[in-house]
Sequence to fold (220 residues):
Amino acid sequence: MKWYLDFGHGGKDPGAVGPTNLKESDTALKIGMIVKENLENALEKVITTRENDKYYSLDYRTKKANSENSDYFISIHLNSATNTSAKGCEIWLYDENSILKNLANNLCNNLSDKMNTPNRGVKYSKKLSVLKNTKMPSLLIEVDFISNKEVEKSLRNDIYLKNITYTISSTLLSFVNKDFVDDKVFYRVCIGSFNNKDNAVNLKNEAISKGFKDTYIYTT
Ligand SMILES: [Zn+2]
Fold:
């Protein structure tokens, strides 16, 4: 599949700004770039609006996605509200007929579960430019509220961001029947299988004595 990943805002337009000045534009970029890498690890094609802190108009975004004949358009944003206790994820679709309805529900459920944040559900808007002007099915993710002090603090944490990106990526991949591919693949060398433990221990000790200090025994 060819995914168009749109990271909200950028450059002169920071989007929402958190209580300690974390910018939506920077956070959406950070999340989006990891999602891009994850999709590419699973051999998906990815086109993006931007890969740095630069401003692009809404018109530019949808035109680029349309001219690239992307299959799906995914826009990544952080939400904001004057009520600073507002918290939770939302997914926006153009209307109820969207073929991404299941994907939107899954994204909402998985983000809510994994990030332990309220599920504000799937919402509809015929006004949002990225939903209205895209030829391909599109959705917009409001990951959580950057205006919430605790959420903003979490968004500064790389492990928290990695959980978000894992959740988004694995949900997108499962929509196209693919598995998340962890880029930390370990290639292990096995030098023997025994049903007698002593034989295994002897071979382990021999390997260690020959300098293979990381040798270990595991059972299957
Ligand atoms: Zn936004």
